[in-house]
Each structure stands twice: as structure tokens, then as C-alpha cells.
Design goal:
binds flavin mononucleotide; EC 1.1.2.3; flavoprotein; iron; Flavocytochrome B2, Chain A, domain 1; FMN-dep_DH; alpha/beta; oxidoreductase; TIM Barrel; 8-stranded parallel beta sheet
Length: 499
Amino acid sequence: MQQKMLTGKDVAEHNNKDSCWIILHGKAYDVTEFLSKHPGGPTAIFKYAGKDATEGFEPIHPPEILDEHLDRSKHLGKVDMSTVTAEEKPFDPEEESRQQRIASKPSLAQCFNLHDFESVAKQVMKKIAWGYYSSGADDEITLRENHSAYHKIWFRPRVLVDVEEVNSSTSMLGSKCSVPFYVTATALGKLGDPEGEVVLTRAAGRHGVIQMIPTLSSCSFDEIVDAKKGDQVQWLQLYVNKDREITKRIVQHAEGRGCKGLFITVDAPQLGRREKDIRTKFNGAASDVQKNNPDTINRSQGVARAISGFIDPSLSWKDIPYFKSITKMPIVLKGVQRVEDVLKAIEYGIPAVVLSNHGGRQLDTAPSAIEILAEVMPELRRRNLHDRIEVYIDGGVRRATDIIKALCLGAKGVGIGRPFLYAMSAYGEQGVVHAMQLLKDEFEMGMRLVGAKSVDELGPELVDARGLGAHTVPTPVDSLSSDVYDRLVLPPFAVKAKL
Ligand SMILES: Cc1cc2nc3c(=O)[nH]c(=O)nc-3n(C[C@H](O)[C@H](O)[C@H](O)COP(=O)(O)O)c2cc1C
């Protein structure tokens, strides 16, 4: 028998703490008992009591979350959305000036490099989204170091090499790809674009770039796989759930749907404190403070922490055999940060690691991946182990010269996170396609100028990495940089909107 549709009025009657219903994607849910369990605090849900919560909910919650956390008996059924009165949004001057900035943003052709996307994204993204994407842990020292570490490596280019034809293609975990970079896993794609991660999938597909699908995507895993074209390669990033049955289900489903690698994130037994994210979320909740009891707001959480309570902090080396027993996909440890752990991974028969500090979002003052790489590869070569494991790195890669440096030092490939998120947030799919093209063009030019026709011709003899040990970029002693040199120019907005 078909269930009777609920009306907006039915839902609106349940707008209090004793009976709290909300609408999500045209369906009603009873969240009364769940209010106190919500990782982001009860207020975040309660402000939608009796109303449609879809707009606030969607970008920051993975789609399966309701099925996992809310008992079936609380799924109340469909709502006739024509009977739900749209909420009148109060005038928001900040949103008004953001809209002006969007209308006058630089054209895509005015973006010449990945930094340009970041500068535009900062101006056009919603604060909460910018806060989540751009934040790093604590004082954001590692975040900055990730980028500046590449400036401490200088090239030793080879000349008079015939570089008329340059081949940028390579393979990663046995899969062919057009370039040695991949889209790394970044959660909550819908904060940047209403379509979410599928935008990255389509752009990656057009360029023959591998995509790592995050556990905490805004689109469902299947939507992201469905968006791939032909034999486009995807990997799965896994946050290991305390409930191993859930983990097993996710892994085996991904393998069944053709994923070619399982990247287990090992640098996040607890999510780092990203204070910018926490502050934006807290300020966003400030208006609720007036309406509700301020003590009910969970002040310790940003978006990141609020969605990650399921991650198992007890995950350890002893779990590796378990993962090997549930999948045939190559298992990769993402977030390794020292030579000793790379050696241990080899002992455990792990075929690849990603040296990474999670984009500076976890342990602040953890070293950059490129610095660890410079330590790891000579040690592997010394022990004759360099062919036993593929080493990937991510964090702070913004130029193709960064990628070339990483490959020279022995990386098999390089993950890129924020730049593609920023390109997507500012310009959608076209933005990501353009960003990838810019990187490809830079890569080809960099290869020519360094004197290499293919990626296997890149080696440590082409770089001087002695400066990597210096962990601070020295402050200039003269005033040339502040008083004389021109600042790098950013792509211009058409109208001088309030920034
Ligand atoms: C917004 C954002 C979300 C992220 N989400 C995840 C995640 O869900 N799982 C994960 O293993 N790493 C995650 N990362 C880390 C990235 O996979 C990668 O290590 C990092 O972004 C690389 O640094 P980059 O952004 O400077 O390129 C995230 C990074 C960002 C910026």
C-alpha cells in the first residue's frame, strides 16, 4: 500500500524539542532523539525544526549518513513539497557582496596558473566553504611549509638534449595515465560546487587523470563512479570505520565497481584542529545563539570534526592483514611521514605509500612530503628496496616544476588537492579542465627546460635539494621585496566589489 504523502503543515507542527521533524530531499525525518547525538551539536539541526533542511544539510553530509545513523522507524516518508512554504531569507549584506564579486569575477582565460584559482575562490566562495577547504591545523605552519618547501629545491638543468617530443605519460599502481599527477581525495565537494565530486570526475576523465574518491564525499560513491567515462581510473580513499563490517562493505563495493587502489588514510586517528574552520562554523551559528540556549552549541567543532567521529583511532599495523584478506586491490598507506614507516610498510608487503601530512590539516609542524621523500629514496636505494614500493607524495604542489622536482627525487606520482577544489569552486567543471590543462602545459615546458624527454629521464642529478632541511623561509634582509619589486598580479575583478 502506498504511504500517504505528508504536507508541509504536518512537518511544521513538529518544531520543538519534544518532537522535532525535518525535511531532507523531499522526505521527512524524526530527529527528536538524534538531536543530542548530532556530532555538530543539536542547534545545527534544531534551527530547521519543522522545516526543509536540505540546503544546509547537503554540502556537509555524505549522502548515506542518514541510513547509517537514523533508525528506519524515524524515516517518515515523502513530503508534498508544493505544500512547503519557502523560508524567507533575511537580507545578508555579506552574501550580497559575494554575489557582486561572483558577477564581476575574472574570466577563466585570465587565470594563468593554479594560484589564480585560489585567489578567485577566496573571493567567491561562501565563508564556511572557504574555511573548510583552506584551513590547516593549529598555526598553519605545515600548510605553508608544504608550499614553500618546493622553493628550497633548485634545478640543475641539462642542455642540448633533443626535447622536440616530450612524453608526460606514466603509470601509477599499474594503471596508465597521461600525467604524473592525480586528483587526491578531498571531502565535501558540494561545499564548492552544487554538483560536488562528479565535477572532478568529469574533468579528470577528459584529461586522463586518475581520481581518488574520498570516503567523506558529498556525492554518493556510486554517483562518482557512474560519472566516469570508459576505462577512466579511480581509487578509493578509506577512513577506517570502528565498525569493520561497514569498512568491509565499502571496500568490497569499491572493488566490485572497478576501483584500482585502496588508499587507507593513516595520518588521522583524530582530525586535527583547524581553527579557521572551527571559527567560521562557530560564527555561522552566532545568530542561533540568540534564539537558543548558547550552552547547547558544540563550540569545539568545525565542519571537519563534526563529520568524522566514526574514524577508528585504534587502527594499527596489526590491521594490515585484515585489509589484505578483504580485497585484492593494492593497499596504499596515505599519510606516511617517516623513513622507518616506509620500511615497515615494505615489511608488511604494502606496494605503495603516499608521503603526506594531509595538506597541513593534521599535525602542525609535521614536515613537508617532499622533504621526507628526499630522505626516504636514498635510504631505499641504499637498502636496494627502491623497486619494492611505489612512493607518492602530496601537499603544496602548485606548479608543474613542483611535480618535476618530486619525480626527480623519486616520487612515482603527485597528488593535488586544494587547487582543483578552488578551480571547481570558482569556475565549475570548465575551471578544473582549465587548471589541469595549465598544469599539463607547464609540465611539458618544464620537462623541455630541464632537459628530459620522458618521466623516466628525471633523476636526482637534475635537482639541488640541499636547502630542504631549512624549515623557515628566511625573512629578506633588504627591503627590495617589500619596497621595490612589483607584487605578482592577480586576475582582476571587473567591478571593485567590497572585498
Ligand atoms: C578540503 C580538504 C579535504 C580533505 N579531505 C580528505 C579526506 O577526506 N581524506 C583524506 O585522506 N585526505 C583528505 N584531505 C587531504 C588531501 O587528500 C591531501 O593530502 C592534501 O589536500 C594535499 O595538499 P594540497 O591541498 O596542498 O594539494 C583533504 C584536504 C582538503 C584540503
